[in-house]
Amino acid sequence: MTNSEIDKIEGEAGNFKVTLLQKARYIDPTACTGCGVCAKYCTVSAINEFDHGLDRRAATYIKYPQAVPQAYAIDRDTCIGCGICEKLCVAMAVKYDDIDKKLEVNVGAVILAIGFQASFETFQDTPFGRYRYADFPNVLTSMQFERTLSASGPYRGSLLRPSDLKAPRKIAWLQCIGSRTADSGYCSAVCCMYAVKQAVVAKEHTEPLDTCIFYMDMRTCDKDFEKYYNRAKDAGVRFIRSKASTINPIDGTGDLMVRYVTERGEIVEERFNMVVLSLGLRHSKDSVTLAHKLGIELNNYNFVKTNSFSPVSTSKPGIYVCGVFQGPKDIPRSVTEASAAACAASISLAEARNTLAKEKVYPPEKDVSQEEPRIGVFICY
User: Fold this and answer.
1) 52 vs 58: CA distance, rounded Å
2) Which candidate, 255, 334, 320, places its Cα nearest to that of 108?
């Protein structure tokens, strides 16, 4: 049920009643064919959230190319109600009078796979506010830079800087933005490797390109990650163990001066065309609100509280968690946890409904003492 959120939840494991708020799309997804004519002729534009503000989209839009369902929606906060999309829609899918709906569903288990917050605004009140991200167009977050490299991104896969759409020749990455601080005393687990990957891919997009990663500790603790790190060094990616103190603009150029201290204690200023801030993984405000609605415990960093022996079980029976809502982790581990949560939910449902498969014992019709032992198969839904 897309474009929906949980309003409240009642009941217990095996028998939850969930009240959902399904927000109006103003285009009927069952009628929309995804042809895109409405967006093509829409006269109003808005900030493209999927590209993290690097370009604009129409008020009638699909959030991203792989969205399910492949149906358009109208952003009523920016729509001026001109009626063009309704007149052009052959499928008659546009519904300006659409309203939010409340739905009730009965479920046996709940799996929370909410994700994380990845905007610099999350860190504005931390010491990283000194980087003045909002003031410098060529200072990007790691999520913005990821969209810059994408073929479906704002520059169609070309590596360009936002201020003048010119190809950069020198890019810096600053690590641990929002991680390993007084209020976020944990490693976000993914920032080192995605910065290394971005630097390598950026060099493949533009040659020659000088790439430099400023880091506290390079944490490459997973299968073949160290090999990839060494491959990046061999490809010419520079690694400087230092935490940059400031970023200052160079007037009239769009370039940026990064000030840092070397391991020898020398103060250095180096000029870059772009700077990428490697954001850590944090909980979202909505996830905390949802946790309170569900009555589950959070830890001191507002991730879901679990224990080592039950890493996908929350404090409330029948409610499970996977991915970054449980704690910072990469995609492979998130996928593994998703499978574990699905398995745990299935077992929980089977126990609650008393439907565990029982082994059938067939009486022997002949002497089977010399035969291979039979293998019992148990299937749980």
Assistant:
1) 15
2) 320
- Cα separation, 242 vs 240, in Å, equals 6
Residue pair 323/114 in contact (Cβ under 8 Å)? The answer is yes
**Residue 328, token pair as written in the block:** 């910072």
Average of per-residue pLDDT values in the chain:
89
Torsion of CA 150, 237, 211, 124, to 10 degrees: 80
- Domains of the chain, each with CATH number or no CATH: 24-99 (no CATH), 120-279 (3.50.50.60), 283-353 (no CATH)
Mean pLDDT on 196-211? 95
| Per-residue pLDDT reduced to its tens digit, 125-156 | 555 567 878 789 999 999 999 999 999 999 99
* 172 and 125 Cβ atoms separated by less than 8 Å: no
Q: Report the run of H or E that residue 336 belongs to, with start and end.
A: helix 331-353
DSSP 8-class letter at 282: B
Q: Which own/partner contact pairs does 268-272 have at CB distance under 8 Å and 24+ positions apart?
A: 270/172, 270/212, 271/170, 272/168, 272/170, 272/171, 272/172, 272/212
Which helix (H) or strand (E) is 287 found in, with range? helix 285-294
Sign of CA dihedral 227, 179, 170, 330: positive
Angle at CA of residue 52, ends 51 and 55, nearest 5°: 55
